[in-house]
Structure prediction request, 632 residues.
Amino acid sequence: MSTAATATARGAEEARPAARPPSGTSRRRLSPGRVLAWTVMIILLIITLFPFFWMLRTALSSNSALYAEAVSLMPADANLGGFQRVFGLQETEQAIAEGGSGASIDFWRYLVNTVLVATGITVCQVFFSAMAAYAFSRLQWKGRDVVFGLFLLSLMVPVIFTLLPNFLLVRELGLIDTLLGIMLPSMFMTPFAIFFLRQFFMNVPTEVEEAALIDGAGRVRVFFTLIIPMTAGPIATVSILTYITAWNDYLWPLMVSYTDASRVLTVALGNFTEQSPQTGPDWAGLMAATLVAALPMLLLFMLFARRIVSSIGFSGIK
Amino acid sequence: MSAVENPAPAPTSSGAHRLRPKRAVGRRDDTRLALLFILPALVGLLLFYFWPLVRGIWLSFTSWDILTPARFVGLANYQEMISDPVFWNAVRVTLLYVVINIGIQTVVALVLAVLMQRLSRSIVLRSLVLTPFLVSNVVAALVFLWILDFQLGIGNHFLEWLGVGRVGFFTTEAWVIPTIALVNVWRHMGYTALLLFAGLQAIPGNLYEAARVDGASEIRQFFTITLPLLRPILGLVLIISVIGSFQVFDTVAVTTGGGPVDASRVLQLYIYDNAFGQFNFGYAAALSVAMLVILMVVTVLQYRVTRAGQTDLN
Prediction:
């Protein structure tokens, strides 16, 4: 989902002073309007969070009990069978008996593939984007604005339009069904990462850089030992956003990967509905699988929530 | 704003000049170094953004199954497209999806943003609201496939309890697009709300104080202050959301695969089917061009109508 990245505006990271003093709000704490407002808020929060709870509840249930106890909030016949099937820890007969497809699904493999793909994309994309952002913000060269304009233009190209030709290119490079093939198109840069980082590089005081240059450091060294450490925060933000985007991508890996060798979690999950056994889908197993796919990003988010949340905004383009 | 206001670092620094005339930091020319620094990004730009654009347009004038050499067929693909009922159906279904998805999502996100602004700005609340955005479309789709399952889904049990009766959310032609639109509202509403929330922060607080002194109600304040002043941001958010919404694929591919019949065969899915189901790459490319044109027209229209980005403040 590149729209995620596109919209997350740049320059939002500097702490903004509270725009308005909370005047009066505390005095009217119990007005009917406020009660109504909180009620709406809580309903929206329940809608937001309930699916996560239901995922967990179902994953810990057993398929047969799900029929009888479709509505109870607690897991129906609680057990870890769903997770065992996801990681291929159950014997085929037992898996089938518990409502699984019995097909060998190896989520470890998909998990490892996904980690490799997301890490590869993030490291390369952020590094190369940072290099370009440095050239666009701190170096003086002819044609800088024109080239930067070209990068701006690439924001207008919808993802869908690049997918087919990119698939053909990756195919011609012989990288179909490889992890590198999945990574390649997003490894070099995204316009968003370049704009985002350029914003912060420009805010590094010129004096600091010049002092280092006077001390005899080269530009390359300044980039590595000065610019990158001084903008570690924004670099971390853009890395996390890139990682999440890469982790959650579906259509592109679906095009490129054909076998377990390069299958990532989203594609493996997408296949699930096609592999349903005769008796109906293995809901417990499926929800366990979605949890396995979602949990790493949720944990990452918990660790960096403040950073991610405050990077979303339009202060850069308003 | 800051981006526009400090364009480039001040190019000259007389102090540095004096100290190290040989390696002047000032009127220097870093062209070679800059080339090195942008090289990887430039390769990415040319190879995976611009070349696909050229190639995609070229492909749309060919007939190609990727096994035998491509054949130039002129406008044949476009002629086929114009008389292809499945294409027009896909356009209709996609538009329907976008209207429902964006309509509901924008209203809910606006409500959420205003509530957050008025009730609590806690980072915990904002994080909770953003949570669905952290999971993939695929995960969101599968969870709702389960929640809204006709037989066992808790959603349908709830409807039955309400006395409404069960609904075949993913299996009836009338419901499938609204359902998929709502699943994606769930995933994106918090994110959209945070974007709007950021926009709300820019509205000067004294406007509200003045309104309150004049005795204007909250509702009145919303329609006379918040909404008009949020318009530039709202416009941008809409443009971005609509572009994303048009490209819906994941949710449909995972839940219905385009069915029942063609009721959820959205444009992107039809493109994918043509390319990877029937190896009809030329036609798929022509469909992509059509999609590109539709997106451009819609974006320009929106830009005109909402005057996105042009503030009424000052």
